[in-house]
Amino acid sequence: MRPGILTVMETVIGLEIHVQLLTRTKLFCSCRADYFGAPPNSLTCPVCLGLPGALPVLNKKAVEYALRVALALGARIREVAQFDRKNYFYPDLPKGYQITQRDMPLASGGSLSFKVDGQTKTVRIRELHLEEDAGKLVHLADKTLIDFNRCGVPLVEIVTEPDLRSPREAREFLRALRTLLRHLRVSNADMEKGELRCDANVSITVAGQLGTKTEIKNLNSFRAVERALSAAVEYQQEKLRGGERIEQVTFGWDDAADKLVVQRVKEEAHDYRYFPDPDLVPLLVSSAWLSEVMKEMPELPWQRAARWAKEFNVPEREAEALLSEPVRADFFEQVAKAIPNPKAAVGWVLSELWPYWTDENPPVPLADFVLLIRKVEEGALPRAKAKELLEQAATGKGKLAELVRAAEGELLRDEEGLRALASEVIAANPQALADYKAGKTQALGYLVGQAMKKAQGKADPKRLAQIIRELLKG
Ligand code: ADP
Ligand code: ZN
Ligand code: MG
């Protein structure tokens, strides 16, 4: 690009995303892959430690998970895929090479659509392949330790076309991808745990010409993706304004300092000397195998959202929030199916329960939550009281089902009492009485409200309304 020309600038972003698969074992050996919390170097064997003579054996499940992702993205599956060696030296890579797929990746093409500012955006997928993860370096003040537990853990790498147009779009795309991966049950895709990591590439297009890209490695939070990309855009703009050429630079991201850190410039670009791994036969994906995988495909998030819209009247935005975590989506769906008016479920789950839902498990048991909603819908429990009980239960002050039963016991049930209360309120509010007689039916609601207040919420508002209506007619 000619320096110094600043006409219409457009930001262009492409992502390379690494997804850690939820298989029980590693990609090429039978060591456990769920290393989180395991003692360092306890999940290793000659294969993943790269000892001479040890041979890799491909994990079928990992391939099936990768195929699931490829199918969900609408990618073309390669009938014959191949594994390549990517050679480089690094202490966390005991073999001296990483097994990946370069020339014949498992799948290519496809796309993912997502919402950003109410608009649907579609990003094309360039390719998707399987590879193994490296070990982990732990840097201490005076030394560095190596943990090989992560070595050989299966990853799917998804490479997008440069179709994203802003750091925000990149973030929202990743969110949508996370939702998809979680629904496919192939990864927890938790960025904080490194189960979803992303290398972001960005350039500025001037007058229709694709600019030189700046790469930022290993971003591991949505915020970091957005912040780092914004910083890289600024970096490029500065250069262009100063009339400088943009060199190809690879950055890391210092989250604490909120700034880019130069990792390497173009001259240091690696030559990885890729070649087909002679220890591994080509990977054949038969149509029979593929249809097996298809049979096990869970409902996709966008299919679920469409079904919810029909069955439970769930608006798009609300569906998005509910779908972000399958555990919550499942909880919501069970609530919707268990209550007489499923349309009320969104409000109950998103507005009432959501604020208390901070970790994996729901703040109250499903059955108790359903009981609470049913009681309110039946008119056996005032809504305000129900919210109070929910708060108590969710903050550890009792079991919800027990609180509901106790509250019900306290309810003013005897008809005599309710009638006395109703008459009292009517007598005290002659204006409301006159309004009602003049046809202003909302006066009824006011009177019920007054009566509920007097009963300190311990009455059934539906029954009260009936009684007040009868008295007003008489
Ligand atoms: P490399 O050969 O340097 O790895 P690739 O062409 O394979 O580059 O692309 C890697 C990633 O960078 C892809 O996600 C792609 O969409 C993105 N990308 C490529 N060119 C650009 C560009 N000019 N601006 C922004 N992103 C780009
Ligand atoms: Zn192993
Ligand atoms: Mg490339």
Can you put this structure into words, describing what you see?
This protein is α+β, with helices and mostly antiparallel strands. It is built from 15 helices and 17 strands. Helix 3 links the parallel strand 13 and strand 14 (249-254). Helix 13 (430-437) runs antiparallel to helix 14 and helix 14 crosses helix 15. The model has no long low-confidence stretch (mean pLDDT 92). The structure holds adenosine-5'-diphosphate, zinc ion and magnesium ion (MG).
Secondary structure: elements and pairs:
Blueprint: E1 9-20, H1 60-72, E2 76-77, E3 80-81, E4 84-87, E5 97-100, E6 107-108, E7 111-116, E8 119-132, E9 136-139, E10 144-147, E11 154-160, H2 167-183, E12 196-206, E13 214-219, H3 222-241, E14 249-254, E15 259-265, E16 275-276, E17 283-284, H4 287-295, H5 301-312, H6 316-323, H7 326-338, H8 345-353, H9 366-378, H10 383-394, H11 400-410, H12 415-428, H13 430-437, H14 442-454, H15 461-473
Parallel strand pairs: 13-14
Antiparallel strand pairs: 1-11, 1-12, 2-6, 3-17, 4-5, 4-16, 6-8, 7-8, 8-11, 9-10, 12-13, 14-15
Helix pairs in contact: 2-3, 5-6, 7-9, 10-11, 12-14, 12-15, 13-14, 14-15
Adenosine-5'-diphosphate is lined by residues 12-16, 159-162, 201-203, 210-211, 213.
